[in-house]
Design goal:
- By secondary structure, this protein is α+β, with helices and mostly antiparallel strands.
- It has one domain: Nuclear Transport Factor 2, Chain: A (Roll), CATH 3.10.450.
- The chain is built from three helices and five strands.
- The chain has a five-stranded antiparallel β-sheet, with helices on both faces.
- The chain starts with a helix and ends with a strand.
- The mean pLDDT is about 85.
- This is DUF4467 domain-containing protein.
- It comes from Staphylococcus schleiferi.
Length: about 110
Amino acid sequence: MRRWFVLILGLVILLSACGQKYDKEIDAVLNSERKSMSESSFKKPEKSNSDFKVYEDGKFITISFVYDKDGTVWTSLYKKNETTDKYVKVEDMNEKEYQSNHKPVYEENNMKK
């Protein structure tokens, strides 16, 4: 019985640590997306209603969310600036094409479609 308890406890700790690996990076991208939409009348993204995909060990992150009442999904691609360690929106690359050509290392799916 004690072995099962230790095994389950170990799995819970392992899974909770894996789930928080990219939280800081995702929060940075979410804040950047909110700032870029500050003048907009569209619905702002929240972590609880957005999908995030992390690529290349955190070098690229996409954020997808529903931004209007019609259910239109908006996706933005962010790249980590190696010198400043901040995420900047990538304007010269198609995010859908990037997603189809790369496999995410981490996904967080919270969007209600």
